[in-house]
Design goal:
One of its GO terms (biological process) is D-xylose metabolic process. Belongs to the FGGY kinase family. This is Carbohydrate kinase. There is one protein chain. By secondary structure, this protein is an alpha+beta fold. It folds into 2 domains: 240 residues, 2-Layer Sandwich (Nucleotidyltransferase, domain 5); 209 residues, Nucleotidyltransferase, domain 5 (2-Layer Sandwich). The protein has 19 helices and 22 strands. Helix 1 packs across helix 6, helix 10 crosses helix 15 and helix 13 crosses helix 14. The chain is globular and about 60 Å long.
């Protein structure tokens, strides 16, 4: 038993819910998780919202087994970006939840983009099939093309239905009544972060004005306190503050310690996400970079690429990746250049729905192939960083690495070498840590204590001679992406100067 204040972060993922209980100085006092399942079929990916609450209560109870409930000073929740459902006024689901990567709403995304292109252009965003706004059109049958057949069988019963993001469902259960959403989760539902309003004129054009869109607050704002029923279910004390969270990508950034203008966090898991901090929104005419709002008022621009570590297990199922890493260290550079997309289509640093993975020449052996994939991800990461610099973003200090790929010490050093930048790796890379940080920030009303919760495990310095080894490979990748018509010429030209 102990007297430290504890902050709880809850991360609603795809395959499970994870929770952390963390002290002001970053010590983990408790952790817990519970699995989630869903239904996947082609472009379809759904989960039952009730399962989120069941898994959340289990994860919290496991986390708090040895933590005095009275010492928990606050909790925040993050979830997958773009996951949405409709509920009634009491919060009972009227539809299944369409998950972040459900892409059935392609026709609806095109309709939303074309109907209000002027609005999205001013906001610097492009509506995509995975975005919650397109999914609302699909759910209500208010879109075009296949929407009437694919969406709700009875649109009339959804009139007045409440728009609910994944985190909203759980925070509402914690508090015991409907709550506001946060601006981070609301972004892909079309929320205007500049005016801090819902675009009601757009809703009218799209036929969504009959839906009940929630109030929106800044991340870290108070939503209420844990109610009696939730306290009994979770082990939290009744009256514990609940603060508004952020999406999982933003949560990972908060947990990385990248809070200051010019700092960037690269999250490498199944795919690659790059997020940074700027004093003003980063305008991208192509719409592949979009901006979240930081709890402290700065902006968090970033984008998600479809390259990533997911290509490794797909290419070498059941292989000892650690052993392949050791063999790959002797192949710098590999005999070929790879563009290791995990799935068809690219979103960042360029938009190319038809883009496909490629390897330019036949690798000499498995070690050479593995090396090419590792290097291909790092080269694409370098291209992403060049793109945000081209848009005018400051890039200062070390880039922070988080995500599951940080388990590979070799890949961490390779990425630092290819980027030519120092890389800081925190002790914890879990989005739940970011939510514990945000809970402390929201309740305490400031950043110094919250920033002290992030512990850096190591900082890697780039090796200049190793960086130079990849100059030719980087140029080859840029040339090939441009030749295929995916990478715009102006971006390719800038990247070559940055190489």
């Amino acid at each position: 038993m102990y007297d430290d204040d504890v902050w709880v972060g809850l991360d609603l993922g795809t395959q499970g819910v994870r929770a952390l209980a963390v002290t002001d100085d970053g010590q983990v006092r408790g952790r817990g998780s519970a699995p989630l399942t869903g239904h996947r079929d082609g472009d379809r990916h759904e989960q039952l919202p009730a399962d989120w609450w069941t898994a959340a209560t289990a994860a919290l109870r496991r986390t708090l087994r040895e933590v005095p409930a009275a010492r928990v000073r606050g909790i925040a929740v993050c979830s997958t970006s773009g996951t949405v459902l409709l509920t009634d006024a009491e919060g009972t689901p009227l539809t299944p939840a369409l998950m972040y990567d459900d892409s059935r709403a392609a026709a609806e995304a095109r309709h939303a983009q074309e109907t209000s292109a002027d609005v999205w252009r001013s906001l610097g965003i492009r509506i995509q099939p995975s975005w919650a706004l397109a999914k609302l059109l699909w759910l209500t049958g208010a879109g075009q093309g296949e929407a009437a057949a694919g969406g709700s069988a009875d649109p009339a019963r959804l009139r007045g239905a409440r728009v609910c993001h994944q985190a909203d469902f759980v925070t509402g259960r914690l508090v015991g009544h409907r709550v506001a959403t946060d601006s981070s989760h609301a972004l892909k539902t079309g929320y205007d972060l500049l005016t801090r309003t819902w675009p009601t004129a757009v809703h009218d054009r799209l036929g969504l004005s009959g839906l009940d869109f929630p109030d929106v607050v800044a991340p870290g704002a108070p939503l209420g306190t844990v109610g009696r029923e939730a306290a009994e279910a979770t082990g939290l004390a009744e009256g514990t503050p609940v603060v508004a969270g952020m999406t999982d990508g933003c949560a990972a950034q908060l947990g990385s310690g990248a809070w200051e203008v010019g700092q960037w966090n690269s999250v490498l898991g199944t795919t690659l996400v790059l997020k940074g901090v700027t004093a003003s929104p980063l305008h991208d005419p192509a719409g592949v970079v979009y901006n979240h709002r930081s709890p402290d008022g700065n902006w968090l621009p970033g984008g998600a690429s479809s390259v990533g570590a997911g290509i490794l297990t797909r290419t070498f199922p059941g292989a000892d990746l650690g052993q392949l890493d050791q063999r790959a260290a002797a192949r710098e550079p590999a005999s070929t250049v790879a563009y290791p997309l995990v799935s068809r289509g690219e979103r960042f640093p360029f938009l190319a729905p038809g883009a496909e993975a490629f390897v330019l020449r036949t690798p000499a052996d498995d070690a050479d192939h593995h090396a090419a994939l590792l290097q291909g991800v790092a080269l694409t990461e370098r291209l992403c960083l060049a793109y945000v610099r081209m848009l005018g973003a400051p890039v200062e200090g070390p880039v922070t690495f988080t995500g599951g790929a940080t388990r590979s010490a070799y890949w961490n050093q390779l990425r630092a070498d290819v980027l030519g930048r120092a890389a800081a790796i925190p002790e914890l890379t879990d989005p739940a840590l970011g939510m514990a940080v945000l809970a402390a920030y929201g309740v305490r009303g400031g950043g110094p204590v919250a920033r002290g919760m992030v512990r850096i495990r190591t900082t890697l310095e780039p090796r200049r001679d190793h960086h130079d080894r990849f100059t030719e490979a980087f140029g080859t990748l840029v040339d090939e992406l441009e030749r295929r018509g995916w990478l715009p010429p102006e971006t390719a030209a800038y990247a070559r100067t940055e190489g």
